[in-house]
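Table S2 (continued). Query chain:
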Amino acid sequence: MNIQNINLDNKTVLVRVDYNVPTFENKIIDDKKIVASLKTINYLLEKNCKIILMSHMGKIKSEDDFANNSLKIVIPILEKLLNKKIKFASYEKEDIIKKVKLLKNKEVLLLENTRFRDIFNKEESSCSEELSKFYASLCDVFINDAFASSHRKHASTYGVTKYVESGIGFLIIEELKNLSNLVNNPKKPFTIVMGGKKVDDKIPVIKNLIEKCDYLLLGGAIANTFLYVKNYNVGKSIINKDLKEEIENILKNYRSKIYLPKDVVVGNNDDKNYFKLKKIDEVNDDEIIYDIGSETISLYKLILKKSKTVFLNGTMGKYEDEKFINGTKEIFKSLNRDNANIIVGGGDSVGAINTLGLNNCVSYLSTGGGATLEYLAKGYLEAIRKEDLK
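Corresponding output:
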């Protein structure tokens, strides 16, 4: 159920949020995911609820990973944003039960990293029935507001919903509203800009959306792989050879919609200062494609200028390196939300938008990453039920 269609007055509510925030030297460097959770939390405070928050953070393979992945790091920012004290419970069940019993209306309790439970036979990520029932026992209502984790059938996202009244929060409602427009009713011309390092999780999105789009503009490793399939020499660039047959079929059926780099900026692992602008048919065996070139940038900008809907996922190259930032910067700067609906889909693309200070160029920044791509590829997510959408 939609959070607004559930009776929440004076209830104990367990909320799955996404506080998997980026950190450096144990300090949070981007609090946008925390800010994104506030609408749901404040709504529950208005309903006089007892609020329990839970999230994962980082990858936990052993107890050695605990120190750098504790959600305690979130508390100072959350207290400042909510202007109230936040209580905290460890991952131990006894401590959680004790803290929940002491919780009063309009108080907020944050639970320790859900993945700490994975040291016990992967209880969280295997969607343990016992852990799912435990989470459900803590509350009257469960609200999932962690869109970025909703493609996973974990105990804290999926399993808990089997044993207690459940619904979705405002962040997920907003995500689905914006992303469903791409799937169901994009204004034309509709352009997809796809880049980044990961290739295999983007192909299903392309296959699902390419009939609906008018243009597909490629950069990064996915462009390298398409170029490789078309028998261009891409040197030592990142590619995925396993996708050759699928990409051949896409090119065969939709060649007129697909735009690949005409020129590129290359580097060389043996010489960190080496970089050159080259035509795509001039790349050498020892070179690596790190960015799109000026001719490609101009072509892509012309297409984007006339587009009414744009979905962007990934970057045009290795934007973290100043030598190879130009393609990403120029393409992102050309986006204009006043003339088109510009939706940016998670991961590196959101990071680049924030790094370049170009948030005002886009209509919507999805928090999803892998979840965004999976929703666009499949039209649903494992942890969001049909009844949650009512």
